[in-house]
UniProtKB/TrEMBL annotation:
TM segment ranges: none
Signal peptide boundaries: none
Entry keyword Endoplasmic reticulum: no
Keyword Transcription: yes
InterPro entries from the UniProt entry: Homeodomain-like_sf (IPR009057), HTH-type_TetR-like_transc_reg (IPR050109), HTH_TetR (IPR001647), Tet_transcr_reg_TetR-rel_C_sf (IPR036271)
Native organism: Stackebrandtia albiflava
GO molecular function (one): DNA-binding transcription factor activity
DNA-binding region: 54-73
Domain called HTH tetR-type: residue spans: 31-91
Protein name: TetR family transcriptional regulator
Organism superkingdom: Bacteria
Keywords of the record: DNA-binding, Transcription, Transcription regulation
Amino acid sequence: MSTDDVPTELPREVLAAWGELPGGSRGPRAELSLEAITATAVELADREGLAAVSMGRVAKALGYTTMSLYRHVANKDELLRHMQDAALGPAPRHLTEGMQWRDGLTVWTRQILLELGRHPWSIEIASSISSGPLMPRSLEWTDWGASLLTDVPLPPIEKLSCLMLLNGYARNEVAMGGGNLREQRRRGTDTMQEELLFQRGFERFATAERLPALHRLVEDGLFPAVDPEMIAGPGDELEYVIDHGLLDFGLQRILDGIEVHIRRHLDAD
């Protein structure tokens, strides 16, 4: 592909998100803003799920006509892209002050998981449309991650690849958890109840005759004792799961690999 084939203009939603799109404030009741539209759509998705979000529903919640929204958002797909970027929230850089790269990236990845886990519909959006990496929150969080690798002896593209790998891990965990959350809503259960149901079913079907390798895992202590604190219902169930390391195994193995890769670079110098 020649340079003549490369688009010269950035996507409309990217320019709008950065406040560089001209217009959008003409006409009556010009106080309506992209930020207000996006925030209302996020609240609606949090409360009722992504399927409930429409231009009409958002406009009604704001007290405007549907046509008023089109001065700020071209269509629903564009609104979804803004919602997906907003799901991350501001990057809490203070959480990693003074940390070495590995501890810092552990916190960085867990925070992505935590933020998106509170808005699992953001992963649904990613599965259907591309949000693009140039949106403000996306670049803000990437910049935070890159700052943790400042003194790491890797080429720039490999630093960015490390962040993409960790970001992908967090999003995959949220995608899996989002499916579980939808099932919980359908059945009227919580995470702990679903875990116990899974354990009972697993133990029931993974017999020595049917599934001998899985049965051996059960016999060797696959399922830990139930934590009474979890049954009691902590204030933030998702945060509890992350803090107690139940989603941490894969993250630490990825970081192990990055650490080995860094050592190879050091040995080669």
